[in-house]
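seq:
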Amino acid sequence: MLKVILQLYPVIPAASEAEREALRPIGRNRERYQETLSGWHDIIRAADELGLWGVATIEHHFWSEGYECGPNPGVLNAYWAAITRNVRVGQLGYVMSTQNPIRVAEETAILDHLTKGRCFVGFARGYQSRWTNVVGQHLGTRATTSPSAGRLDSTHMFGDPTGKPERTADDDLNRRIFEEEVEIVLKAWTQESFSHNGSAWQIPYPYDRGVDDWPLAKFGTTGRFGAPGEVDEEGNTRRVSVVPAPYTKPHPPVLVATSGSPESAEYCARQGFIPLYFNSLATALKLSAAHDRALAASGREVKPGRNQAIVRIPHIGKTRAEAEDSVMRYDSDIFRNFYAAMGQHHVPAENVVEAVTRNGMWTVGTVDDVRKHLVEEWKQLPCEYLTIIYHYAQMPKDRVLDNLARFMREVKPALDELVA
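struct:
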C-alpha cells in the first residue's frame, strides 16, 4: 500500500499581503504562532486517525516573514508522539550541513524510543543562504542548490537562490559536509563505539592523541564499564559511545530531500535511504532512473518506485473553480513571494494557478481530477511513499482536514492498487 506522509509547512497566516506587511515581523507574532501550534496538533491527531503512515515538519530558521516557521522539528515530534497511537513522526528534514551530528543521532534515537519505533528521520542539505550560512558557519557551509538539479529541471520548486547555477565549489563543499555528518550519525546509531577522522569532524578530539584528560579513563572506570575500545592502554579516550542506541535495529527509516540532484538519488540508493523528489513527474522519472542504476550497480534488486518518495501539493474542491480558488487563497502568497522569488522570478497574481500547474508538484481539481492525475503519474512511477504538503496555517485547519480526509478516502485507494 501507498505510504502517505503529511508534511505541514508552518506558515503564520495573514489575510492578505498587506496584513503580512502591517504585522511585520509576523514570524515573531506570539498570538498567531500559538494559534497555529494549537490547530497543528489537531491535524496531527486527525492524520493518526485517518491512517497516514507518517507526519512531518521542516527545519528552517529566521523566517521573519512567517513563511516557514519550523526551527525545531524534534521538539514537535516528541509532543506528537505523546498524542498519537499509530502514525510515525519525523522531519523532512534535519539540514545536516549545519548540524552537530552527535546531537542529531542522540535526539533521533530518543525519539525512536519515545515512539517505540514509530519514528523516521529526514535529512536535507540546505539551500536557504540566510540561515544555512549563519548556522553552518563553523563548518564552513554555504547554502546551495545542485547545479545538476538546475540543469535537469528548470521548473523545480525552489529555483536557484543565487541566480548562479554553476556554483560548483559551494555545492561540492555542502555535499561533502552533509555526507560526512550523515556518516557520523550512522556510526553513532549502529556502532557500540566509534572514531572518525574527517575534514569537518574529529572524534575524539584531538584525533591524533585522543582525549588525554578524562579522569574516569585514568581511574579505570571507562575501561571496566564503558564500550570496548573506548580507551587505550595509556588511558586516553580513542573512541566514543553515543547513547542511547535507537530502538529500531539498525536505525529508523531515513529519507533524503532532493530538489532534482541525480547525485542525491544515487547516494540514497547506495545507503539504502529513501530519496524524496520535490519535482515534476518528468524530473522524478530521471531521478528514479539514476537511483535504480546505482541500486543495480550495487547488486540489489530493482523494482520501480520501491523505497522512493515523491512530493505533491493537492487542492481538492467540489468543483475545479473551488480548487483553483483554494490555490489563490492559500498558496498564492507563498508561491509568489517565496518560491518564485527564490528563483528570482516574478509571477503576477493572475498567473499563479497556471504557474503551479506548470511546476508539476501541485495537483488541483475535483476528487476525480486529482485521482485521475495521480493515477496517471503512478502508472509511470509507482512510488512507495507520497509526501503531501499543505501550507498550514495559511490554509486553515478545517480546510486542511477536509482535503486530507478526501485524499485518504477517495484518492489513495486507487494509488494503493498501483503500488501493490
